[in-house]
Amino acid sequence: MKSVIRILILTVLLAAGDAAACTSMIVSGAKSASGRPMIWKHRDTSAENNFLYRVEPEGGIGYVGLFNGGDSLALDEAWMGMNDAGFAIINTVAYNLPPNKPDFIDREGFVMAAALSKCRSVDDFEEFLVKLPKPMGVRTCFGVMDAEGNGAYFETDDYNIVRYNLDEAHDGVMVRTNFAYSGTTDEGMGYIRHGNVLDLLGAQISTGSLTPASLTEGVSRSFYNSLTRRDALEGEDEWIVDQDFVPRHSSTSSIVIEGLLPGETPDKMRMWANIGYPPCSHVVEVTLDSIPADVSATVDHPRSRRSEDADELKKLVFPISRGSGQRYINVPALREINASERALSEACYNRSKRKR
């Protein structure tokens, strides 16, 4: 009986991991080509449609957040975002932290929406977490960045908070997938994806030449596996299995928030947003007061058109729906679509360079 229960628990955990297998990174200004710090989240979720929206909370700080598309424009759970004080936040689920109480779970989105409306700094966020009623209903690595260039991960469960500061990271960057450094050793998920990020970006980290495109156009479009040391797109296979790449069938966005140089005001922050399955979509530039219509939503249409368009292209990449077919990638379709969408992203980045 115990073995049956254990199998059931493992099955549930694996299903959850496939639905929420995010990858993230915080980059110090010393390691970016522009001198600006960056925070990035490649999001995986069962909510296929994402959109960006400007929120003006009564008595709080205005912010741009990432929300799940649905039947209404609820805006009560943000899955990353930046605010008018220069504060930014992301998260990744950490499956090796203590599980939540069963009657109070999955509160990360509510916590991030509240933090965006209240916090101005990394220290503010720590105080905010400490004061939250317990249990918190979270099991996650929160990543935050502020206008002063400070960054930190807060590995957080129902009752505990462990802080890791960016200025103490020996190479000026921090990566989190789906295990917490403070959690149970060798449990959780995302170890290979963690290695993928460091392998793919190692040279740029060492030279301090990271850019937002390093993440959205490099890592989020890469089918490299750090265990096999093989890039699946460099072979001749017509089909590959969707396993341990950063972009996954469950991926719904890849977003970099670029912070501030000394003396700059928060209006200079930029969000480089790829909404939809990243290899089938492209980056647009978002500011605190300007969100392109195709990545936002309306009361009448609470979903983004960009996600919907990407989903149509994704059907060509994952054309088999029966059985376990959704785990198989059509490589020729992927190569063609990925290259076409990357070109659109590069055009966006180039336009911004000319303006800035």
Structure description:
The chain has 356 residues and is of the alpha+beta class. It has one domain (20-355): Penicillin V Acylase, Chain A. Helix content is 28%, strand content 23%. The chain contains seven helices and 17 strands. Strand 8 and strand 9 form a beta hairpin. The protein starts with a helix and ends with a helix.
Q: Which SSEs are present, and which pair or pack?
A:
Elements: H1 2-19, E1 23-27, E2 38-44, E3 50-55, E4 63-68, E5 81-83, E6 88-93, H2 108-118, H3 122-131, E7 140-145, E8 151-156, E9 161-165, E10 173-176, H4 191-207, H5 212-218, E11 224-225, E12 230-231, E13 239-241, E14 251-258, E15 270-275, E16 283-286, H6 305-317, E17 328-330, H7 331-355
Antiparallel strand pairs: 1-2, 1-10, 2-14, 3-4, 4-5, 5-6, 6-7, 7-8, 8-9, 11-12, 13-17, 14-15, 15-16
User: Which residues form runs of ≥5 with pLDDT under 50?
Assistant: 1-18
Strand numbers in spatial order across the main sheet: 3-4-5-6-7-8-9
What's the total helix number? 7
For the sheet with most strands, the description reads: 7 strands, antiparallel
Task: Give the structure's gist in a few sentences.
The protein contains seven helices and 17 strands. With 356 residues, the protein is α+β, with helices and mostly antiparallel strands.
Question: What descriptive keywords fit this protein?
Answer:
alpha+beta, 23% strand, globular
